[in-house]
Amino acid sequence: MKLTDITVTRAIPAPVEKVFDVWMDPKSPGGPWFGAERVIVNPVVDGLFYLAVKHEGRTWPHFGRFVAIDRPQRVEYTWMSEGTQGVESVVTVTFEPREDQTEVTLRHSGVPDDETGRKHEQGWTWVLSMLAERF
Amino acid sequence: MVAISDPTRRAIIGRLARGPARISDVARPFSMSLTGVCKHVRVLERAGLVRRTRTGRENMLELSAEPLRDVARWISRYERFWNLRLDRLEGFFAAQQEKSK
C-alpha cells in the first residue's frame, strides 16, 4: 500500500505552554478532542486514546497510543481508523514560539495514499497545465 | 507557471480551496508581512486564479476559476480534518485574546 504524509501549519495567538496544554486536554474547548461523540484519552507515554467523531451522518472511531510527550514542544501519537485502512499512522505535533504566538505544525505520516490522495496530485497537475497554457 | 511555482502561492490556493477568506486570515499563517502576502495575491489575481471582492472595509478573496474550486475536493480527508481542528484552536485563543483586551 502506498503511503503519504500530510502537513498542516498554523500560527496560534497564545504562548506555547497554553497551546500545548489545550491540545492535550480532552476537556478544553478549542482542543482537537473536544466536541467528539465519545473521547477517552490517557495523555501519558504509552497511554491510549479512543476518539469517536461524527461526520457525514455516521461515527468514525479512531484509536492510538502516545509515543512521545515533550511539553511544551512536541507530542507524538499513533493513529488508526477506517481512514488509515487499519494502518498505524503517526501524528506529530510541534509547538514553536514565534514572538508572542505559537506556530503549530502537524504532520500526519503513513496515511494510505488512496483515491483522494491521487486526485490531489491530479489536481495540481491540472492546475500547472492550465497555467502553462495561460503564460 | 509563475503563479503556482511558489510555495506561498500554493499555500494561499490551498487555504482558499477551503472557502473564501479575508486577506488578513489568509496572511496569518505565513511568517511574512501582509504586504508580502498581498504581492503574492496580486500575482494570483493577474493569473486569473483568485478574485478579490470588497465588503465594506474587508477584502475577501476566493478562487475565481470554476475548476479551481474543485481543488477543495482534492484536498485529502485528513488535511481537512486537521485544518478544521486548527481553525478551532485558533478561534479559541483569538476569542480569549479579545476577552483579555
- CATH homologous superfamily identity of chain B: Winged helix-like DNA-binding domain superfamily/Winged helix DNA-binding domain
| CATH first level of chain B | Mainly Alpha
Largest interface: A-B, 41 and 38 residues
CA distance, first residue to last residue of chain A? 38 Å
Layout of secondary structure:
The complex is a heterodimer of chains A (135) and B (101).
Chain A: E1 3-12, H1 16-24, E2 38-41, E3 48-55, E4 58-70, E5 74-81, E6 89-98, E7 101-112, H2 115-134
Chain B: H1 2-5, H2 7-16, E1 21-22, H3 23-27, H4 34-46, E2 50-55, E3 58-63, H5 66-69, H6 71-74, H7 77-100
Antiparallel strand pairs in B: 1-3, 2-3
Structure write-up:
The complex is a heterodimer of chains A (135) and B (101). Chain A is an alpha+beta fold and 135 residues long. Chain A has helices spanning 16-24, 115-134; strands spanning 3-12, 38-41, 48-55, 58-70, 74-81, 89-98, 101-112. Chain A has a single domain (3-134), classed as 2-Layer Sandwich (Alpha-D-Glucose-1,6-Bisphosphate, Chain A, domain 4). Chain A is built from 2 helices and 7 strands. With 101 residues, chain B is of the alpha+beta class. In chain B, strands 1-3-2 form a 3-stranded antiparallel β-sheet. In chain B, strand 2 and strand 3 form a beta hairpin. The longest helix of chain B has 24 residues, at 77-100. Chain B is globular and about 40 Å long. Chain B starts with a helix and ends with a helix. The mean pLDDT of chain B is 78. The interface between A and B is large, with 41 and 38 residues.
Which labels suit this protein?
heterodimer, A: alpha+beta, Alpha-D-Glucose-1,6-Bisphosphate, Chain A, domain 4, 2 helices, 21% helix, B: 101 residues, alpha+beta, Arc Repressor Mutant, subunit A, 3-stranded antiparallel sheet, 3 strands, globular
Provide a brief overview of the structure:
The complex is a heterodimer of chains A (135) and B (101). Chain A is α+β, with helices and mostly antiparallel strands and 135 residues long.
